[in-house]
Amino acid sequence: MSTTTDAKRKAPAGERVADWADGRLGIYSLAKANMRKIFPDHWSFMLGEICLYSFIIIILTGVYLTLFFHPSMNEVHYHGSYVPMQGIRMTEAYASTLDISFDVRGGLLIRQIHHWAALIFIAGMFVHMMRVFFTGAFRKPREINWLFGFLLFALGMFTGFTGYSLPDDLLSGTGVRFTQGAILSVPIVGTYISMFLFGGEFPGHDIIARFYSIHILLLPGIMLGLVVAHLILVFYHKHTQFPGPGRTNKNVVGMPLLPVYMAKAGGFFFLVFGVIAVIAALFTINPIWALGPYRPDQVSTGAQPDWYMGFAEGLVRVMPGWEINLWGHTLVLGVFIPLVVFGLVLAAIAVYPFIESWITGDKREHHILDRPRNAPTRTALGVAWVTSYMVMLIGGGNDIFATHLHMSINSITWFVRIFYFVGPVIAFIVTKRICMGLQRRDRDKVLHGRESGIIKRLPHGEFVEIHEPLSQSQRYSLTAHEQYEPAEVGPAVDENGVERKLTRGEKLRAKLSKGYFGEGNQVPKATAEEYREISSGHGGHH
Amino acid sequence: MSSNEISDKNLPHEQGSAHGTAVAENPFADPGLPPHKPRIQDVDEQAAKRSERTVALLFTVSMLATIGFIASFVIFPVDEIVYVWPIGHVSATNLSLGLTLGVALFCIGAGAVHWARTLMSDEEFADDRHAIEAAPEVKAKVMTDFADGARESAIGRRPLIRNTMLGALAMVPLSGVVLLRELGPLPEKKLFHTSWKKGLQLINMNTNEPLRPEDVVVGSLTFAKPEGLEEDDEDFNNKIAKDALMIVRIQPQDIKDRRELEWSHEGIVAFSKICTHVGCPISLYEQQTHHVLCPCHQSTFDLSDGARVIFGPAGHPLPQLRIGVNGEGNLEALGDFAEPVGPAFWERG
Ligand code: HEM
Ligand code: FES
């Protein structure tokens, strides 16, 4: 009895609190599994952290903004401290954004941090997604987490768009008008969607309030759930790692969560927040006071959306204005096709992991990352996708490119139209060649060693460069990648001599598999026999 | 799927991970984790002390910056504008608050990262991974549990319950869908009409006075709204989104389109200002060519030829308003637009 009381008295306060919590939440078992969990280190693994931290910053600053922002389209005359707008009619939404910018101390800073963090959030997700794609981190068991990430990216664009529209300034109102025009182009139900979304004809009196609840509640709520699910899965699957000595598909090598990873990741949050605060202090974003309140009959020139919508903007700008009138109805292809392509380009991201695993037929777990060069077809497809995306960004800024490059809008538009189709093909071919070249170089390095830069003269006068053999761990790292054989369709006659009908799917898969892994689509890696032959044959040089 | 299954032959063999003896035989075998190399701070307490001081300094700077933040908040009036090279005139509060906050946050981060990199152990460890998939026995247990549960519920034996339950669950969300009906009115013919009707005078947007033919000179672009629509009206934005007019004077002999000439008043033509692409207001006029340009996506319309689209993504011409002159000598509408203004839609026809 006395010993237990003794023990209790001696336990420090922190431990007593932990004991209390453990009795109710079981935190010790949780901590046992996770406190010293190993996290591999690589600079590209920080991209996801940037997204997480900017999301947290957005929520913090967003909540502050809700304290001052009035999501109302009631018209008022402005009487705040920004002189040029005195007495002008505007919606309360616009007036309260002016107040946040000019009458709330620090309000402008929080607005700017919110907007900058939003831009960085979406850019971060884009680059993070590229990292996952090009290293093959989306393979089993992580396909579902890929989908969660994809949804976050897509929803992030819409959250950003609705937030951008809230101040009801001339620029964002023009963006909303654009959206309404695009909705009208949807066959059969377009006018209904528009009337229901806007509570009547454009612009109506409801859209700001509706966007507000979508922007601060609906979408962030869903996104918060997705972020949590995304992180739980990262913990559960454990992080992937690049190939290297001691790193296998069955282990994870790195430093423990407590203390190193916690200090680095926690510190990185403050670094990201600090950098965004400084950017917000120095670079004005969205100066709504310079634009004026929205009016459907006014417009500012050089109207541009935030960068993540530039791609949709480009599609709408370069599409020819096709309209088909038939049986008393109009099919507005000139706007509807861009809308559909927008959806398809995003959907391509979502489905890729499932297509690739269908082609490889691989059902094993993958925890070792691919170097992009070692998956030339995948890498080339990714670069082709990015190319088409970038071409459309150019399309979205065709007027800006035209004025800056002193070219006519017409030629930029035609450039974009042609390159939207040709660019990805060129990118695909070039990328694949580069990947194969790099694979060949790796193979040479493994077999012949690294170029040392030292030139030696042979007795008969020839000059050769000395090649230093690689270390065992370098050789291992460069040959650790797996190479698939192209899948065969299999015999047309099965083992019982019965003719087997090949489905169209099987044939397609065999063809694709050949395109991925067939001859000429990957460089066979060096074998041990080749290595021994060469290293016993003629020493360190060739 | 099974007939569609491809054999595993094409899958690569797992790289044998071989330690010790196997390394000599296989030049590509995994040599295992390299031994840990100590950093300078691990062996030299002097260097470790230096790191410690750097970290502490960063945390101290952060504290000072937070004090600076509070001081700036108190000192600078919210409307003070300062000139700072090279960024120009900026709000003093925004700049000082942002920089101090940024420094305060950044130094915490830099301190923590420096601490982790130089003073915390950088030894690498390996954790085992376990297959995500359950072992066969676990799966078998779950399957029998599920079968037991399903049997006890009798859902398979009593299809009447199952079917009515599914029906009820499928129908109950309909209430939610029906409620959404209140979001807005039906389109009906709303998009086909504007406020314009016969006899309404054209009011100059700039002067708020009725427009007279002599006010419209060759080469200028004039904007107009219907008489009776005031900027302070409750639904001004809704109205002007469809009523906005663009008026130019073109020499009658330069008008190529017969109907356009008929609907003009001595070469004064009135077109909808709302772009037929996705609805931006048109704002730029090129007087020599009589082209107007929409700044949003550069659709260009030829006002001397029925506002035909000559460039850009718009799909049809700008609708024209038929105008004349009333008894007082002011321009007036002779009816509504003959077709819907703004972007095209399914029912437009
Ligand atoms: C999750 C991703 C989010 C993104 C990408 C995002 C993006 C944006 C953007 C670009 C703006 C325009 C800011 C401007 O320049 O004026 C904005 C405004 C706003 N956001 Fe967010 N936001 C997000 C989440 C939130 C959350 C969670 C809240 C609140 C709980 C919030 C509250 C607001 C408010 C009140 C405004 C209008 C105030 C103003 O414009 O000054 N946002 N948002
Ligand atoms: S809205 Fe005028 S060109 Fe698109």
Automatic annotation (TrEMBL), chain A:
Q: What is its EC number?
A: 7.1.1.8
Query: What cofactor is this protein dependent on?
Result: heme
Sequence intervals crossing the membrane:
45-69, 113-134, 146-166, 178-199, 211-236, 265-286, 331-355, 375-394, 414-435
| Record InterPro entries | Cyt_b/b6_N, Cytb/b6-like_sf, Di-haem_cyt_TM
Keywords recorded for this protein, A-Z: Membrane, Transmembrane, Transmembrane helix
Question: Pfam family example for this protein?
Answer: Cytochrom_B_N_2
As its record notes, the protein acts as a catalyst of: a quinol + 2 Fe(III)-[cytochrome c](out) = a quinone + 2 Fe(II)-[cytochrome c](out) + 2 H(+)(out)
Which residue range or ranges hold the Cytochrome b/b6 N-terminal region profile domain? 17-243
Check the record and name the PANTHER family matching this protein.
CYTOCHROME B
Q: What is this protein called?
A: Cytochrome bc1 complex cytochrome b subunit
Q: Supply the source organism for this entry.
A: Streptomyces lichenis
Q: What is the lineage of its organism?
A: Bacteria, Bacillati, Actinomycetota, Actinomycetes, Kitasatosporales
UniProtKB/TrEMBL annotation, chain B:
The answer on whether this UniProt entry bears the keyword Magnesium reads no
Q: What residue spans carry the region label Disordered?
A: 1-46
The record's section on Pfam families has: QcrA_N, Rieske
- The chain positions of domain Rieske read 237-332
Q: How does it sit in the membrane?
A: Multi-pass membrane protein
Annotated TM spans: 55-76, 96-116
Q: Which UniProt keywords apply?
A: 2Fe-2S, Cell membrane, Disulfide bond, Electron transport, Iron, Iron-sulfur, Membrane, Metal-binding, Oxidoreductase, Respiratory chain, Transmembrane, Transmembrane helix, Transport
Where does it localize? Cell membrane
* Presence of keyword Transport: yes
Q: Which ranges are annotated Basic and acidic residues under compositional bias? A: 1-12
Which coenzyme or cofactor does it need?
[2Fe-2S] cluster
Tell me the function of this protein: Iron-sulfur subunit of the cytochrome bc1 complex, an essential component of the respiratory electron transport chain required for ATP synthesis. The bc1 complex catalyzes the oxidation of menaquinol and the reduction of cytochrome c in the respiratory chain. The bc1 complex operates through a Q-cycle mechanism that couples electron transfer to generation of the proton gradient that drives ATP synthesis.
**Family named by the database record:** Belongs to the Rieske iron-sulfur protein family.
Designated name of the protein: Cytochrome bc1 complex Rieske iron-sulfur subunit
